[in-house]
Amino acid sequence: MFKKTLCLLIICLLLTACTVGIVQRQEIVQRTPAATALATATPDTAQATLAALQTENAMLATQVAIAERIDWYWYAYTASDMWIDHSLQDRYDGADPYIYDIAIAPDGMWAASQYGVSHFAGAWTTYAAGKDLPSGNVLSVAVAPDGAIWVSTYGGGVSRFYGASWTTFSTADGLLDANVYAIAVGYDGTVWAGTYIGLARFDGSAWTSYTAADGLSTPSTTDLVVARDGSVWGAAWPGVYRFDGSTWTFYTVDDGLPGENINAVAIDNDDTVWVGGEMGVASFDGASWTFYDLPRGLSNVFAIDPATDGTLWIGGDCGVSHFDDDSWITYTVADGLIHPYVRSIAVESSRGIWIGTEYGLSRYGPPLPPSPTRPPMAPPTEAIYPTITPTSPPASPTPCTTVPGAALQPKLSGHPEVTSALGCPLEGQQLIWTAEQAFQNGRMLWKEDRDVAFILFSDENTYLVEDDLYIEGDSEDACPKVGDAPEGLYKPVRGFNRQWCNVPDVRARLGWALEKETGYNATWQQFEHGIVLLNHADHIFILYDDGTWGYIE
Known about the structure:
Shape: globular
Helix content: 10-25%
Largest sheet: 8 strands, antiparallel
Structural class: mainly beta
Radius of gyration: 25 Å
């Protein structure tokens, strides 16, 4: 429907282009350097040369195993597999984790999700929001040269795990913004944090900020990677930037990028930079960009991870693809992928390919030894708040177990009548892809996780909730007979168009659109008696359960 339009699962399964190929074995006939040296070794050099040969053989065996996927299978990991406790699942209606990012560390795999960050090293450990971390929605995870784990969160700043404890850095410590969308650590241990208002650097003692005032013309960072020369590359909306500590370099569609908005950036062993976005994938060799069309069925790239064998794993809407510079092999839910919308990828030589999706984690690799038995956990309580019978005497209000999110609190704190009407929050704040369009007499909002549109009418401050009926490939206009909008106004398209055209009285009550549809990541939080949205203009919309809505500027 929008920039991040969901493709229906059934379409993904039926797309004939999303077929699975078979990787043919490539016989290796070249003699390696160590093998050549061993053939001419002297007694004095034979032992060292043999050790080098054994190392080469081990690396070669790993590369062949990854290339051929010998005895590899698909495995799925959900909230229960990842030892995410019931109290956390209650906040998200039992939803499986949305895996925003994955990183491979010497001690195993780390996966960032709305529940916190989970670690797998034969068994699972999850570090949870409100217990180990100040915020849920861990959006990015990176591994430092010293083995420390760095995570970025939405609303809770940046946290570092080293040894057995967490240290958190907030705006009070000099961090640019509490909402950090990407994090990366350089070879020298320098930490880079990307936000929607700029870039921050931590040198081990202090934070330094870079914004538009410092020359960062595209501050909305979505992904980061640090090159071997110490420069940082940022995927942004729009474009891609490189910063070497003093000079900014920017690249756009005109330079060969795959679309205006870039979601992913990575660097392979040859120092080639790879980026992915709405329209495909592109690589940069230091001089120019090369664009690669995606295989049919895969769209909107969100994840890229180069493998040690020189190939590339790419994930997006409808699956994950393996690219060897000449051909594509695409895997979908029909092959065993847990969910079609891939948002993160990491290649681990011993365990295969980890693939994070919007609803759980997949691993494509060899069988692993059984994990230790999960300790018994108390089942979720049926009621979060005590019930007061009508005959009971008046009681003091029960304190809320969850508070309004950090992004919402400054606005809501000045409106006690709103917080009283909403009741207690039922979950922490969440970052959810949203679309918005203002009309002459109201507004339309779309929320990706539920795939519904909220239609807000100004005449009576009421709203409707309607399913998104638009299917990718359909006409963008379901009522062409209505004609075009008057000059200076707009006719909605795609999903909003379906409700505007087909739901009774919507077109008459809303009128024409005042602007084009806008897509962005918005803050949402569910309360006892409604849901609250903080939009891209820093305005709050309150959607009460009784069908009315309010607004805080």
